[in-house]
Amino acid sequence: xLKPLIAMFGLLLATSAFAQTAEKQEKALSQYLPYAGEPVxxxxxxxxxxxELVGEYKVVVWPRLNEAYLLTVDPPCQDLRWAQxxxxxxxxxxxxxxxxxxxxxxxxxxxxxxxPIDYKKYLADKKATKEAAKS
Length: 135
Description:
Helix content: 25-40%
Strand order of the largest sheet: 2-3-4-8-7-5
């Protein structure tokens, strides 16, 4: 009797945590989308500085501190929503849609769209909004 109850509680916690995470991802995506440009075929890539999951099949990657790209991968992408770390494949320091992938554990999720984000404008607008709220 105790084991099924514990399992049910664990499932409830996991479902609740995912709902919060999905809500947070949706909010982040809505903040980045106004700054996302038209899709491009590729971008220069040397190192993954940071990344942020912003949807079930969407991730923002920073190849440099002030340069960001919104990547959409093909479904299914196993374990992306639970990933603690990811990788990005590249060829000759370039990430290309349809040829490169987001790597999650042992899975490769093919990139089907790349959109540059005007990250400097995003940061400037965010700072201006914060300063306006202070006054």
